[in-house]
Amino acid sequence: xxxxxxxxxxxxxxxxxxxxxxxxxxxxxxxLLQSSSSSxxxxxxxxxxxxxxxxxxxLITYADTVADAGCSGLRSLRRIVNAHLAEFAAVIHVxxxxxxxxxxxxxxxxxxxxxxxxxxxxxxxxxxEGRRLMADLVLNHVSASHPWVRQFLRRxxxxxxxxxxxxxxxxxxxxVRPRSTALFTQLGPPNAKRQVxxxxxxxxxxxxxxxxxVLIGFAELLRRMSRHGVRWIRLDxxxxxWKEPNTTCIHRPEAYRLVQVLRLLLQSLCPDGVVVTExxxxxxxxxxxxxxxxxxxxxxxxxxxxxxxxAAISGRADLLNTWLxxxxxxxxxxxxxxxxxxHDGVGLRPLEGLMPDKRLLQxxxxxxxxxxxxxxxxxxxxxxxxxxxxxxxxxxxADGGIDPSHLQLERFLLTQLLVMVLPGVPAFYLxxxxxxxxxxxxxxxxxxxxxxxxxxxxxxSLERRLDDPESDPTLVLNVLRHAMRVRALMPALHPxxxxxxxxxxxxxxxxxxxxTPQQSLYAVHNMTSARLNLPLSTLSxxxxxxxxxxxxxxxxxxxxxxxxxxxxxQVVWLVSR
Length: 577
Description:
Blueprint: H1 3-16, H2 22-37, E1 58-61, E2 66-67, H3 73-84, E3 91-94, H4 121-127, E4 132-138, E5 141-143, H5 147-154, E6 184-187, E7 194-197, E8 204-206, H6 212-227, E9 230-236, H7 253-269, E10 274-278, H8 283-287, E11 298-300, H9 304-314, H10 318-324, E12 335-338, E13 346-347, H11 357-369, E14 373-378, E15 384-390, H12 393-396, H13 408-421, E16 425-429, H14 430-433, H15 440-446, E17 457-458, H16 459-467, H17 472-489, E18 499-501, E19 509-516, E20 519-526, E21 532-535, E22 548-550, E23 555-556, E24 563-566, E25 571-576
Parallel strand pairs: 1-3, 1-16, 2-17, 3-4, 4-9, 9-10, 10-11, 11-12, 12-16
Antiparallel strand pairs: 5-8, 6-7, 13-15, 14-15, 18-19, 19-20, 20-25, 21-24, 22-23, 22-25
Helix pairs in contact: 1-2, 1-7, 2-6, 2-7, 3-4, 6-7, 13-17
């Protein structure tokens, strides 16, 4: 790491960890940098300006989404990705793959070993060949079985300083919660119980980030991950990691400093590293991790999934257009990770201030009619309020009438194509790309609502579906694969090019202009189940003099054509020639 960055690191550490002498800070800084730089030497000298391109997309998947007896999940995943999903997998986000005890891998029990069914570190390295991997740093908590927790209960180092111990007290009455479980849990033998923070549930014990030992442990984990192909890191639930009495205990200043520290450590390992924050909170809170340009590179675009889903279900895009009309201006080298489906539910907190209560209620009812479930969180008042919708994106696209499959494919494709044309990097959840309905049997087996959208596939049966030219997954992938290839060739759709909303005030269409005056692309989305006509003059004052080409259909509009005719949920990408 260059001296200016080392100086920045020491300053950040001084703010985080008040110590008796500057020598202690120097020692901690040196220890962190040594841990990071020890994995250098891979010849990676990528410039920061090349963090992403128009060809990039993130494929989100569990390590065992594709599972076969006698073959590790990572090997099976690699086989499917290489054969069918290369266009969507420039970056693969492998959801938590370390040993864990619950919450789909997010209750990490060991920083050194993978779950046996996933494979080992060499399998992770093999998956990284020809692409970048993204991995989670679950910062807020560890499993109740983690060595740090066991050491804490025995009052042994380093764990005794790594676990956050506290007791119920009025000073914690304003804590923001993502769950309805108890904030504190008692651990240990009956005669020596100790009470710890459990923000996300009793098996997820919160870490004490006031202890440098916690940062040292994560620096070592980051080094190990980078050695095996991880270049992007997702900071899970980062807003919750620092607790302060008589506050909400979310988005504390120390949390932002820690994001910056982790970014510096990642960049010392790989100059092309990307830090992604995951904060399922109202929009301005989420964007706050991008604002100064020194913390996250990307943030999950959390308002997009619920607004786009509601528009697709209701056929009204007025709220979506209003939101798109004030797309944020962000510092250079920062952006948004645009997605629809993911391994969690569709978050509702990002809708705060964006959707009237009556409209939200109609939205929730419509999702329940399509087999979805609503999860809740608990307010400081003790009231439970809707927190997320648990539903597969494919099931959510079903029609509300007699035939659920009516226009289901068209709705689904529209939502994924819209994600591709927004500024930022698109992300796709593997089960969604495979047109997977709600996994009701898995939910009934586990009782976990999120398992509705966490299915598993057998390689052979999945291959058969993908070889069937008429199957829903094949139809989806053929369209989206072509669109990704077109996107990669269009400078106007680079993640960093500007966007202008053309359809402000409309509810039937979403029309976006991307690119520069010299090279623009117009993406037109019919958000309704009706056929629509759009005057081409809406796009450009010179429309009548222009020759238009639809990049998605690889076809030219007729010379002199004045109206663009759109089928239900049709999408066109127009460029002027």
